[in-house]
Amino acid sequence: MNFLKRAGLSLWSRKTRTLITFSTFVVISVMVLAGVLIKDATARASDAAQRKIGAEVTLGVDMDALASSGQLQAPQIRTGVIDRIGTSPLVDKYTYRSFNGASLQGGRKLPGKPLYPEVPASTLAFGVLDSSLEPDFASGKWKLLSGKPITGADRDKNVLLVEERLARENNLRTGDRIKLGENDPEGKRTAEFTVQGIYRDPSDAPDPEWQLDPGNRLFVTAGALSKLNGEDAATVGAATFQLKDPAAYEEFKAQAEKTAGSSFKGFELGINDKALRQMTGPLSSVSGTATAGMWLIGVAGAAVLALLAALAVKQRRAEFGVLLSLGERKGKLIAQQVAEIVVVAVLAIGLSSLFTQTLTERAGNALVRDEASAAQRKLDAWKPPPPGSTGLQEGIDQDAGPVEGADPIDRITVRLDNGSLATVAGLGLGIGLLATALPAASVLRLSPRSILSKGK
């Protein structure tokens, strides 16, 4: 009789032991498969969040280098350098930003306090390439009520965006023209700008960074702002690049540093993944818990299976002794044990695959919802510093505030595919074979004469 037929008869005749082994394998298969499915589902959700948000790389002043150099003025970089970096195939879109004072001419009025008390209509103008990439526009906090945003197609044009309170104060509409003066109370340089869009900032509090009334803010093209203030070439103090693939950050950084050369002196590149971390925090926690549980069940299951296999060898010593005395090779006895484990494992994995997807999706979403709710409560509890304060005295870090439009992910979609089944099958069979390794070693030490004559 070959060892495969003996394995089948052994499983059938020892139904209780077979059932216990089968149940153990079902538990192992369900837990391992659930861990794999949750890990895959959270990875897909994280990838989707990355594609939605993109990788935002910021170029800003290196404050440590600025402090150590003793300089009082922050460095500037020419927009042409930023444009060359922005042409990289790794970049989806980019913008840059400068700021300077400007004054409303022709009797125009501000809805709030001026930037400079000695100049009644002085305000702050931000020079940009693409206004839609400004954080508050990108997050949806600021809404464009009419007109269109400033884009690369408007480069150096005399166009601007105004806040609705300033537009209302001066009865401005999209397409109207407004004259601005340079950032010099004694200067005579002026330029006419076209109102390209009117936006809404819902805040009534002064800007904590600039202490500026929300309505006293203009967005213009960086080139036009530089010309207004008599600069020979447009320069900016910061830039933002959105990468097509977040994983390309290191490659992009190397390219940018090579392209910019010495122009990067005093600047540093950094990737802003705060929004991504805020969204995927619950996923990371659930994935870690599922992975730890998967390995714990796997190790515990292997130990239980090893114990069952060892007991089986002890109970079947007489059977093995007879077979060995009849000339059966020890290798075939080990192969018989392996065949029994493989048959039970295959059946258990097949059964677990029928219902694990549904159970895992319910359990996984329950875990993700709990984690997301806890994360959201923490975000809701954060309070910004009071108006006129930096927050340092209150122990508040402004950068620790939540990112709007980046709510923690509270749902995952579990998908059972061939890859997941193959992974579980490999792990299950591996656990089964590992569990039979030690009992198999004891089979190699069996002596038919000793077993039949002494019973041990």
Explain this structure.
Helix 2 crosses helix 11 (about 330-380) and helix 11 (about 330-380) crosses helix 12 (about 420-445). The chain has 13 helices and twelve strands. The chain folds into two domains: about 5-50 and about 280-390 and about 400-455, no CATH class; about 75-265, no CATH class. The mean pLDDT is about 80. The longest helix is centred in the C-terminal third of the chain and has 52 residues, at about 330-380. It is α+β, with helices and mostly antiparallel strands. It has helices at about 5-15, 15-55, 65-70, 80-85, 135-140, 165-170, 220-230, 250-260, 275-315, 315-325, 330-380, 420-445, 450-455; strands spanning about 55-60, 75-80, 90-105, 120-130, 145, 160-165, 175-180, 190-200, 215-220, 235, 240-245, 265-270. Strand 7 (about 175-180) and strand 8 (about 190-200) form a beta hairpin.
What composes the largest sheet? 6 strands, mixed, barrel
The value of Rg in angstroms is: 35 Å
Question: What is the overall silhouette?
Answer: elongated
What is the helix content?
40-55%
Protein structure class: alpha+beta
| Strand residue percentage | 15-25%
- Number of helical regions: 13
- Extended strand count: 12
Helix-strand sequence:
HHEHEHEEHEEHEEEHEEHEHHHHH
Low-confidence stretches: none
Roughly how many Å apart are the termini? 25 Å
Mean pLDDT: 79
Number of domains: 2
In spatial order, strands of the major sheet run 3-4-9-6-8-7
